[in-house]
Amino acid sequence: MEIVVLRVGHRPERDKRVSTHVCLVARAFGASGILIDREDKRLESKISDLVDKWGGEFWIRSGINWKREIKERKKKGWRIVHLTMYGINVDDVINEIRKYEKILVIVGSEKVPREIYDLADLNVAIGNQPHSEISALAILLDRIFSGEELKREFKNCKIRIIPSKRGKTVLRVDSLGEE
Ligand code: SAM
Questions:
Q1: Contacting residues for 53 by C-beta, under 8 A, at least 6 apart
Q2: How far apart are CA 27 and CA 51, in angstroms?
């Protein structure tokens, strides 16, 4: 299964921190990449630097025409899952979502254009109370992968954590990607 996240309504100055966290969650919880509607080169380089250090193949592209992106992916067989508190509860559709091969997950920022609700194959709610795109994305991905995504190894990292009950243990990996 391939999952790409599309962030709609990103405002480079106001949403700096939240959009960064959406990217971090997308990567850590198993998405392949993220598309951001407004161009934001600073966000792109922040995430690329993070991938360089922590590994994996996560990618980011900003300055995306969301409507064209959704329509083109739909033609290529991608399923569109829009996260919104107005949608169907995740537990009622998770088995259907797990059958999809390629999923574009849309998360909003402020008000999401009405057209997205109609273009989506599924409008999915992580409960029908308002909360956040960060939590909604994390929970959806975790439900899709049933927690397995948390055990993934990120290849070609320069730094890796050795889990420990107490203290902080960090392993530095040499530039060839060998320990
Ligand atoms: N009021 C906005 C609207 O009408 O779309 C939502 C703003 S909310 C801060 C930002 C994003 O968080 C939403 O676009 C949605 O993707 C996500 N979100 C918030 N609560 C959610 C929920 N209960 N279920 C799914 N997604 C949610």
A1: 157, 158, 159
A2: 9
The residue length of the chain stands at 179
CA-CA-CA-CA dihedral for 162, 165, 166, 167, to nearest 10: 20
- CB atoms closer than 10 angstroms to residue 83: 24
CB of residue 108 inside a 6 A radius of ligand 1: yes
Question: pLDDT tens across 105-117, in order?
Answer: 999 998 999 999 9
Query: pLDDT tens across 133-155, in order?
Result: 999 999 999 999 999 999 999 99
Domains identified in the chain and CATH numbers: 2-153 (3.40.1280.10)
Tokens encoding 77: 């067989």
Cβ of 114 below 6 Å from ligand 1: no
141: which 2 tokens? 């991905």
pTM greater than 0.90 (yes/no): yes
Atom of ligand 1 nearest to the CA of 140: 25
